[in-house]
Design brief:
Elements (H helix, E strand, L loop, with lengths): L1 H4 L5 E4 L7 H10 L11 E4 L4 H6 L5 H5 L12 H14 L10 H11 L3 H17 L7 H9 L12
Parallel strand pairs: 1-2
Helix pairs in contact: 6-7, 6-8, 7-8
Protein name: Putative Type II secretory pathway, component ExeA
Pfam families: AAA_22
GO molecular function: ATP hydrolysis activity
Length: about 160
């Protein structure tokens, strides 16, 4: 209330919202009722996996669902977006060299992760470790295959039989 009185916007960010109980989601709904005659006192942003959408479709979530003003679903990243995403993360971490991932490794990374950022991060990390361990300077298909083999949730769409 004090922050709102001082003219500040109060935002509650909830990550992994699909794991919240119905009681917790109801508490969030009640929080969303906080307002003055002029404006809402709190904005609430829920982040979650696709299971959150399923949970919000349940009959007991009708009142919360009615309060959702904006809904956005991230689509899987394309191969080009995967490369740009990795480059951004590497630069943000302080890397200033040339490309670390060969094109064939990027293609395999995108297909094996389905373009999901969380899985991209995990596979890229494992592939970078495998590359470092082998004494190479760039991630190739071999290192990416090792990362995929070590990650149960990765799609093994191109495994040789």
């Amino acid at each position: 209330m004090q922050a709102a009185d001082e003219g500040h916007r109060v935002v509650l960010l909830v990550d992994e919202a699909q794991t919240l109980s119905y009681a917790a989601l109801e508490s969030i709904r009640l929080l969303s009722n906080l307002e003055t005659e002029k404006r809402k006192l709190i904005q609430i942003i829920l982040f979650g996996q696709p299971e959150l959408d399923i949970r919000l479709q349940q009959p007991q979530m009708r009142q919360l669902r009615q309060r959702i003003g904006f809904h956005h679903q991230l689509l899987p990243l394309s191969r080009e977006e995967t490369g740009a995403y990795l480059e951004h993360r590497l630069r943000h971490a302080g890397y200033t060299g040339g490309p670390l991932f060969q094109n064939n490794a990027l293609r395999l990374l995108q297909r094996s992760s389905g373009g999901t950022p969380r899985l991209l991060n995990l596979l890229a990390h494992k592939a970078l470790l495998a590359t470092y361990g082998s004494g190479r300077r760039r991630v190739g298909r071999r290192e990416m295959l090792r990362a995929v083999a070590d990650t149960p949730q990765a799609r093994r769409v191109w495994w040789p039989i």
